[in-house]
């Protein structure tokens, strides 16, 4: 990929912090996440490591959302507020927090009062953890007005590492991609699916952040190959000259893309590189 002059830009809902970065961003093609798009486009880094201006939630929104979640009859969930490189919480299911911690997300820190902590700092995003998939739509409906009226947006997280099985595995990549043939990240996969909804700034998404990076590099969206599997990837797939959905992506994602490749477990990313980058360049 270096020889072909291809920039590989990770675009993720995660922050550039936590043990997951040691397993993923140390791959040579990813250059430590520079360039990279993080927190669903709220944070982005250029090739030289310089940060673009961040997007944060409106100051009043986190407290308003927490009040909605604490109202009588509200659907139970565990809110996590992302501030800097930390994920703040003040209560919630120990099992859900343990699963999130084992995924290697931003370091968790318990605070005495989450609402007060949010009022005192700039919050990038709020993650709503819940153990039941049947609660997802109801939870989103219950907080939608608070989020949208407060200048935020809701998106559903899709994390391929959390599936209904319990084992370790090593994910192989094709040796031609400039990535180690065996990706040395033995990922813990949990017995229980962890469902997550995200609250992010209304004016921030992966596509907006990528647009800013492209402008810096003098490139247009026609030069972009976007590969995604989650709802938060739709802004990338809608703009890219070539859009590819992973086989494990939801129906809306597969419908939005021009092409569909194998799932994460089937090395769909490597398949996309071979079909739309390497074969075209040879």
Largest sheet: 6 strands, mixed
Structural class: alpha/beta
Tell me the β content: 15-25%
What is the count of β-strands? 13
Q: Indicate the percent of residues in helices.
A: 25-40%
Task: Annotate the secondary structure layout.
Blueprint: H1 20-24, E1 36-38, E2 43-45, H2 61-70, E3 78-83, E4 86-89, H3 94-103, E5 108-110, H4 114-119, E6 125-130, H5 136-149, E7 152-156, E8 171-172, E9 182-183, E10 195-201, H6 206-217, E11 225-228, H7 234-239, E12 242-245, H8 251-256, E13 259-260, H9 268-281
Parallel strand pairs: 4-5, 11-12, 12-13
Antiparallel strand pairs: 1-2, 3-4, 3-6, 6-10, 7-10, 8-9
Which short descriptors sum up this protein?
282 residues, alpha/beta, globular, 3-stranded parallel sheet, 29% helix, 6-stranded mixed sheet, 9 helices
What do you see in this structure?
- This protein has helices at 20-24, 61-70, 94-103, 114-119, 136-149, 206-217, 234-239, 251-256, 268-281; strands at residues 36-38, 43-45, 78-83, 86-89, 108-110, 125-130, 152-156, 171-172, 182-183, 195-201, 225-228, 242-245, 259-260.
- The chain is globular, with a radius of gyration of 19 Å.
- Helix 2 (61-70) packs antiparallel against helix 5 (136-149).
- The chain is of the alpha/beta class.
- The chain is built from 9 helices and 13 strands.
- The relative contact order is 0.15.
- Strands 5-4-3-6-10-7 form a 6-stranded mixed beta sheet, with helices on both faces. It has a 3-stranded parallel beta sheet with strand order 11-12-13. It has a two-stranded antiparallel sheet with strand order 1-2.
